[in-house]
Amino acid sequence: MSWDDLSKNKMKWPAVSEVHRYRKQVYEAVSNLISNLTDEQCANGITQDSPLWSLAMSFEHERIHLETSSVLLSEMPIEHVKFPANFPAYHPTANDNSIEKNPIAGQHYPINEMITVSSQKVTLGKARDYPSFGWDNEYGRRDYQVPEFKASKFLITNGEYLEFVRDGGYGNPDYWTDVGWKFRAFRNVKWPSFWMRKGPQGLHHFDLRLIFDEVPMKWSWPVVVNYHEAEAYAKWKSVKTGQKYRVMTELEHNAIRNPKQVSSSSSLSLL
Ligand SMILES: [Fe+2]
């Protein structure tokens, strides 16, 4: 991704032999820790002063690897990947083999409505003595008053996003931020990464790439796009409707996760 800032930094990497030495040290430290575990150490949760903290960090780190690797695996040529034994099954609707080339809102994907979320206090951050693992940037505490806003009831679906694609959303720089348009042009992106084109380009017929399989498009599933694409969709929606849509903020996301506040909504993306 040469358009972003990752390639600007000239990093100095350690020699392979140094990496091996370090890995050996860590392996021994962690193995010792596991073999000498006592029940008392595990009794009251794990706080930062516990040697077990390093294990909890490893578990959490591994979960992050699974998440990022699931994207990398989805980008691999399909003939090089295989659904692993013991891997959690796809959602059952993945097995629905019906093909809908021209999805209709309300029939093949839900009509999304905007739900008002009232102004409320949101507290971010975690206490130092919280008895489970946290990354260093999760600590501290800050209270916010989040103003009233509206959020879409559902995550934006593939079906809704197709409306943007069909309307030439990927060809109009007006919908994109400068950095978003650079990403779009650099990759020559014309639709979401995991939509697999079927037939001539202008027809907009797609299958859907899952991590290990390709299936007929699921128009009611949430669309998988990056932040630039989400921003462009919101801008397009604003232009089309005359109302101001945008990607929701972290604070707003926390607000809708408050079960007292919104009972019917799932997570989502637009104001
Ligand atoms: Fe890692």
Would you give an account of this structure?
This protein is an alpha+beta fold. It has 2 domains: 5-74, no CATH class; 89-271, no CATH class. The protein is built from 7 helices and 7 strands. It has helices at 16-35, 39-43, 53-75, 158-166, 178-187, 227-241, 250-256; strands at residues 114-117, 120-126, 140-146, 149-152, 195-197, 206-209, 214-216. The strands form 3 sheets. A 3-stranded antiparallel β-sheet has the order 5-6-7, with no helix packed on it. Strands 1-4 form a two-stranded antiparallel ribbon. A two-stranded antiparallel sheet has the order 2-3. β5 (195-197) and β6 (206-209) form a beta hairpin. α5 crosses α6. It is globular and about 60 Å long. The structure holds fe (ii) ion (FE2). Fe (ii) ion is lined by residues 61, 65.
Features:
single chain; 271 residues; alpha+beta; 2 domains; two-stranded antiparallel ribbon; 7 strands; 33% helix; globular; binds fe (ii) ion
Question: What can be said about this structure in brief?
Answer:
By secondary structure, this protein is an alpha+beta fold. The chain has seven helices and seven strands.
Q: Give the SSE string.
A: HHHEEEEHHEEEHH
Helix content: 25-40%
Small molecules bound: fe (ii) ion
* Quantity of strands, as a count: 7
Count of helical stretches: 7
**Largest sheet properties:** 3 strands, antiparallel
For the termini, the CA-CA separation is 30 Å
